[in-house]
Amino acid sequence: MATVTVPRPVQSDGEGRGLTLFEIDRELDELLDDAEAEAEDNRGQLSEETKQAIEAYLEALHKKVDAIAGYVRYQEIVAETARREEQRLAARKRAAENRVKSLKEMLVYFLLARGLKKMDGELNTISLQKNGQPSLAIDDPSSIPDCFHETSVRFRKTELQALVAQLPDGELRQRLEQALQEELDIAQGAVRSALLQGEAVTGARLYKGHHIRLR
User: Fold this and answer.
1) Per residue in 33-54, pLDDT tens?
2) What is the largest distance, in Å, between two alpha-carbon atoms of the chain?
3) Domain boundaries, position 185
């Protein structure tokens, strides 16, 4: 008669918390192999000890699976709650930043209109300072030279390979020509760089604005 070697026992609470899912699966697999050998030597019969061990490990496996699934669902809820909170806080952040921006712009206008450089309170001073870097103003986008306009065109790899291989008449050429007919974005970085280097760019200029400083 074959002897079944019972693996280390599952904890008495029946949840198998003492073993990982992989350990339960491995030891249950070993237990079933031993049980099969025992049944062959005992006319298909299993001892009560073997049956109880198998039942205990099956129960532990089922509860471990449920515990893992529950943990995954809980973490999904945590992630979703965090995502919603992130969106809420991001909206509050944007609103607060917009209020600060609007108020500072109003203060700049107020101080410039009255020819003031600062206003003193009992605990704070609001002062007007020129920006260190000039700001870019696009007065007339249609006047900006073509070399400062840009666009992004997406192609599949196979399309790009075909485009590189040949560029006579064809659908790809028509698509590129169509893209050139559309309104393109202005490469503001290139415009700024050109103006800083003393180049004249029709429709654009640099100006030094002001900002508010709190002390």
Assistant:
1) 777 777 777 777 777 788 888 8
2) 106
3) 130-210
